[in-house]
Specification:
heterodimer; A: mainly alpha; 15 helices; 70% helix; B: mainly alpha; 2 strands
């Protein structure tokens, strides 16, 4: 086994120094009216979410279609603990671990009864759970403020940071980057640990894993709980970053599928693939699309505003085509882990 | 929406919800059949099925508005327009579904199960985008062609009775029941139906017996698509609004119905559809419309936990 791959150090180092070159950000802002640094902060959280999902889908090989629910549970727990309408008003650094715990408990709640289900049934139960959570957020306005979301959520206290968090993207940028780096290396260590190897054993051949004395039920439960906890972690940070819990539609099936698409495009079970998938798809949606939309608009003229005349109107067609092509020609993803590649090329265990 | 509703409940409202629930359930069952038949043979959750249903709805809409048919048109015009819809839309859906199978799923038959599933999600995205171009981001109102008059003769119930069985309820049953009977006859009695059952049971053995499994699969996709086409017309006629997102919600309900009944099981899909219809109707009536989705999925989760292979499904041993 080699040590930590150096490329990830390089990548994270580049991100760490990005804010010291504000000209990039200014240029991007002139182009799209958004701050690239701000978008990147969101991207880092999204990458955490993708790494979370990777634990269940990538390592353990269980199809999970409801990860956004745990993202939402994390966000709303933080929302309830921070929002001025509630009496709690705790410090964010207290709310964050509590949100993680609540999301993890929700993960256990979902996983415990559903683990004896076969693959597709499990997928549909996670999907159903996601929809139940979303509709609970939507239909309990007494608790969640329904579609408006809980706001305003105060930014966290960080010693020595005195800038206005609403105007300067950097504090959240660094918090999100730190979160991503932590989760990335934590999972890297976990991958080669006893637990991580046991998960991969379940993915490759559950029956054989059982025969080798692995308690598959417990291991799957652990995978679900960890994924839920990490998703809740990302959700909690997301809520304070947005200064609001946004609303139920931020945590729906589309988001779950979007995260899954990132994983599949990048390569299931591979952390680097995860990052690449998120960079491509999230970058497409939030960075490339706005730029191209601007160009297309000047090209077709301001009077043509039909959906098909904007670049982002084609978003789903592009996504769908990419998914189909990847599955057809490179099912292991763009940056697969060696192990998954072997599994797929030898015909696969399933 | 509170508990106060229970106080005013009487058998008539109860029966009314039952009628509405059954007709919605039959519609869902029709879509669910497409899921369950495809799953039965290729073990693929065809995520794009709901969106196929949506596209069918838009085609019916385009045909009817293209012929300038509204609720006020002459009966003959309406009948002609509907006849055309009932021919063209199922054919369109059947051909589209089979072509997608040929172009996208067929090359992946021997790939791991995740590959066709993800491709199906991709197809679903593409369909949804086409639906967005076709119908626009807003709701589209489908011509209201079926009279909403009560068909229960006034002498049958007492004067204050508000129980209704409308033309819209009737058309749902008038279309779905014959289709289901025809499907049952096809699957049970014809050679192709027999081949279909054989391929579902064991594709390799079926191939060894000389059955052209690829052809059987293509036919299955066509039948499933055709049923979705019928369902989309009925949906348009009874619900009267279309949106490019309707495929997702209804597809999800239908898929839930298929799982509920035991996926791969044809009578199970119908039973599951009816259960979903009744749950959503009674749930909407007594608890609140906005909770319908949550209620359906909670029912699904509970049921699967206690009976993991669905209501009518038999416990399948995991293939190793």
């Amino acid at each position: 086994m080699k040590g930590l791959p150096t490329w990830s150090f390089v990548l994270f180092a580049i991100f760490a120094i990005y804010p010291f070159f504000p000209t990039f950000d200014e240029h991007f802002f002139n182009l799209t009216n958004r701050s690239l640094g701000d978008q990147l902060g969101g991207l880092f959280l999204f990458a955490v979410l993708a790494l979370a999902l990777n634990v269940v889908v990538g390592y353990t090989g269980l199809l999970h279609l409801g990860i956004a629910a745990f993202f939402g549970i994390g966000a709303y727990t933080t929302g309830v603990l921070l929002a001025p309408v509630y009496p709690f008003n705790v410090n964010f650094w207290v709310a964050l671990p509590l949100s993680v715990v609540v999301a993890m408990l929700a993960g256990l709640l979902l996983a415990a009864p559903s683990l004896r289900l076969r693959g597709d049934y499990l997928a549909i139960v996670t999907l159903g759970f996601g929809e139940v959570v979303k509709s609970a957020i939507k239909n309990l306005p007494e608790i969640t403020r329904g579609t408006q979301g809980l706001s305003p959520l105060a930014p966290p206290d960080v010693y020595g940071v005195t800038v206005d968090w609403a105007l300067d993207y950097r504090p959240f940028y660094y918090i999100c980057l730190l979160a991503l780096v932590l989760v990335f290396y934590l999972l890297g260590r976990l991958e080669s640990s006893r637990l991580g190897r046991a998960w991969v054993a379940i993915r490759e051949d559950e029956l054989a894993a059982t025969c080798m004395g692995l308690n598959t039920a417990k291991l799957k439960l652990a995978a679900f709980a960890l994924a839920a906890a990490l998703a809740g972690f990302a959700g909690s940070l997301y809520a304070v970053k947005m200064t609001s819990t946004v609303g139920p539609d931020a945590f729906d099936f589309n988001k779950s599928i979007f995260v899954l698409c990132c994983l599949i495009l990048g390569g299931l079970g591979s952390r680097s693939g995860c990052l690449l998938g998120v960079f491509i798809l999230y970058g497409f949606d939030f960075i490339l699309s706005p730029i191209l939309d601007g160009y297309v608009q000047t090209w077709v003229g301001p009077d043509n505003k039909a959906t098909w005349q904007s670049f982002s109107g084609w978003r789903l067609i592009i996504f769908g085509t990419v998914l189909i092509l990847v599955m057809r020609f490179r099912p292991e993803g763009l940056l697969p882990s060696d192990r998954v590649k072997d599994e797929l090329q030898s015909g696969g265990a399933k | 929406m509170s508990l106060a509703i229970f106080a005013t409940t009487d058998w008539e409202t109860f029966a009314q919800y039952g009628i509405n629930g059954l007709s919605f359930g039959m519609l869902i069952a029709l879509i669910a059949l497409g899921y369950t038949m495809v799953y039965g043979i290729v073990e693929l959750i065809n995520f794009a099925h709901g969106d196929l249903f949506m596209l069918g709805g838009f085609l019916a809409f385009t045909i009817l508005t293209g012929m300038k048919i509204t609720g006020e048109s002459e009966t003959l015009m309406i009948a002609g327009g509907l006849f055309l819809c009932f021919i063209a839309v199922p054919i369109f859906c059947a051909v589209l579904n089979a072509s997608v199978d040929f172009a996208v799923y067929k090359p992946l038959r021997s790939a791991p199960k995740l590959a066709p599933l993800v491709s199906a999600i991709g197809v679903s995205f593409i369909f949804m985008n086409i639906g967005l171009f076709w119908g626009g981001p807003q709701d589209v109102s489908f011509p209201d062609l079926i009279p909403n008059d009560n068909l229960i003769p006034s002498g049958m119930l007492d004067a204050e009775s508000k129980l209704q069985f409308t033309g819209k309820n009737l058309i749902v049953f008038a279309v779905t029941i014959p289709l289901m009977i025809a499907l049952t006859i096809f699957v049970r009695l014809t050679t192709l139906g027999k081949a279909m059952r054989a391929a579902a049971q064991n594709p390799t053995a079926a191939r060894l017996m000389g059955i052209d499994v690829d052809r059987v699969i293509a036919v299955t996709f066509m039948i499933g698509g055709g049923l979705a086409g019928f369902a989309s017309i009925i949906y348009g006629l009874t619900v009267n609004t279309l949106t490019y997102q309707m495929g997702f919600q209804n597809g999800l309900y239908a898929f839930t119905a298929a799982v509920l009944g035991g996926i791969g099981n044809i009578p199970g899909a119908v039973l599951g559809g009816l259960v979903i219809g009744l749950v959503s109707s009674y749930g909407a009536g007594y608890i609140g419309q906005q909770w319908t989705g949550a209620l359906i999925f909670t029912a699904l989760i509970v049921l699967l936990v206690f009976r993991p292979s669905g209501l009518l499904g038999t416990r399948v041993r995991e293939k190793v």
